[in-house]
Amino acid sequence: MIIAGSDDPAYRTPFTDNEHHGVADTTREKGGSGGGFWPHHLLEAALATCINITLRKYADKHGIPLREASTKVTLDRSHPGETIFNYVVELAGNLTEPQRTALLQVAGDCPVKQTLLKKISFKYGVD
Length: 127
Prior knowledge:
Mean pLDDT: 95
CATH class of the largest domain: Alpha Beta
């Protein structure tokens, strides 16, 4: 569960899970201070970090010498009625081609992506 609050300057929004803390904001052009992540960037971050964690866990479990994974996610909202998450994964390490292929295939199976692929609904007032 994430709890978001209010803060100064306007639109600065601290959030917490009661253990970790972050700050969101909007751009200066939209009246914010630019002092935190934009909410859409947090969506991108959720997917990018989940892909990286999934890759590292898979590599550890299968003894694959993955030294580093880097995932870049961009959210494309330019198409009416459709949201596109574009992502690129870079892998570093002494990897064979089959290991690289397996890792890139696993990247597409991360839990956040699986969640985003499901039908989504919103319910107000449910705790």
